[in-house]
Structure formats: structure tokens, C-alpha cells
Design brief:
The chain has 215 residues and is of the alpha/beta class. 47% of the residues lie in helices and 15% in strands. The chain has helices at residues 13-23, 31-41, 44-54, 61-72, 90-103, 117-125, 165-178, 181-188, 201-211; strands spanning 2-6, 27-30, 81-84, 109-114, 127-130, 136-138, 157-158, 192-196. It has a five-stranded parallel beta sheet with strand order 2-3-1-4-8, with helices on both faces. The protein has a three-stranded antiparallel beta sheet with strand order 6-5-7. α4 runs parallel beside α5. The longest helix has 14 residues, at 90-103.
Length: 215
């Protein structure tokens, strides 16, 4: 199975990717994790990304695509993979199609996890993170026992700047402008499956399995 997971910030793509890989002989390929690892490893592409990010700029499509291509060429991807966080733009999607044609390993499916903007804002704006141990809480769905205090280590919880409502709505606008065109692109190719991303993690996972024909 070769699959792309699309969805706005807060849609739960990473969670669903991990659930899918736990039940299948496939690899979870997270663009964000790969980028951070490339920077930490000091690879040629990682060094390019680091210098660009240090300037506060977005990493160019060519660098991100190069890191993804390197990962997809590894032996553990032969049996399949789930791409999470890539592609983000139409240009990236077109380049990915070229790469996969060269590898003779085209995509099987593209899952679009769709959630209303108001629900996404509630999900993201409610997140709180421990400064010391990184444990995550949510003011509505997973509140700490003591307000503002981590259950695990007793340190202070905080809200990330990119989890504040104004920032979230800006991120969602960027997603609509840059990433939603991919839905039409993959729909034209006959690969797209739309999934209702509202509900519990288990309900969403079941919908994905049904869309893939194994639910």
C-alpha cells in the first residue's frame, strides 16, 4: 500500500498514520520528522534546510522533495508507506508523481481527512504542553488534574504560539490556498477518498479502512 494522507493542521493525520502502520507492513513517512532528522544528521540536504530555516524562510520544494525521495528509496519502503505532511503544494505533488514514476511505484490512494474549521480551532487552541517533559494535555478532552500543572512531572503547562487562535486561522488559510488544490489534482487521477474527520480516533480509523476496502 502506497498512500498519501491529506488534511489541515489538527486533522489527526499523524495519529491515523501510526494506526495504519501498526496494522500493515508499511512505513510511516512524516515530512516534518524527516526534515528535523536531516538537519540533526547534518546531511547535505539537511544543511541546506537548516540555513534556510535559520533565516525564517520556508524550505524550498526541491529540498523537501529531495529528502522525501531519499527516504522512499530505502528498502523498508518497498512493501509500502504512508506519506504524512507531504505533498503540501501542487508543485510538490507533481514532482512526487515524477519521482514515483521513476521508481515504478505509483500511489494507490490519497485520503483527505476533512474537519470543519471551528472544530480544528477547538482542537488546536485547547492543547497544552509541559515545558519540562513534553507531555500533552487538552483543556476539554484531556485536562490536567491540577490546572496548568503537568500530571507526569509537576512542571508548568503552556500554550505554543502556533496554537493560538489567530495563528491557527492563518495556518488554515494557508492550507486552503496551498494544499486544497491537491484534492482536485488527486481526484482527477482517481486516487482520492474523502473521509469525515469528525468523531473519535477509532471512528475515523474505521472510515479510512472502509475507504481502502478493508473495513
Amino acid at each position: 500500500m502506497r498512500l498519501v494522507l491529506l488534511g489541515p493542521p489538527g486533522a489527526g493525520k499523524g495519529t491515523q498514520a501510526r494506526l495504519l502502520t501498526a496494522k500493515s507492513d508499511v512505513v510511516h513517512v512524516s515530512a516534518g520528522d524527516l526534515l528535523r532528522q536531516a538537519v540533526a544528521d547534518g546531511s547535505e540536504l539537511g544543511q541546506k534546510a537548516k540555513s534556510i530555516m535559520a533565516q525564517g524562510s520556508l524550505v524550498p520544494d526541491g529540498v523537501v522533495t529531495g529528502i522525501i525521495e531519499e527516504r522512499l528509496r530505502r528498502p523498508d519502503c518497498v512493501s509500502g508507506y504512508i506519506l504524512d505532511g507531504f505533498p503540501r503544494t501542487l508543485r510538490q505533488a507533481e514532482t512526487l508523481s515524477d519521482v514515483l514514476r521513476h521508481l515504478q511505484a505509483p500511489l494507490d490512494w490519497v485520503i483527505s481527512v476533512e474537519v470543519s474549521e471551528d472544530d480544528l480551532v477547538r482542537r488546536l487552541a485547547g492543547r497544552r504542553i509541559c515545558r519540562a517533559c513534553g507531555a500533552m494535555f487538552h483543556v476539554d478532552t484531556k485536562p490536567p488534574t491540577q490546572h496548568g500543572i503537568c500530571d507526569s512531572c509537576g512542571d508548568q503547562l503552556f500554550q505554543r504560539d502556533d496554537d493560538k487562535e489567530d495563528t491557527i486561522r492563518h495556518r488554515l488559510r494557508v492550507y486552503r490556498e496551498q494544499t486544497e488544490p491537491l484534492i482536485a489534482y488527486y481526484n482527477t487521477m482517481g486516487l482520492l477518498r474523502r473521509i469525515n474527520g469528525q468523531g473519535t480516533i477509532e471512528e475515523i480509523a474505521q472510515r479510512i479502512h472502509q475507504a481502502l476496502g478493508d473495513g
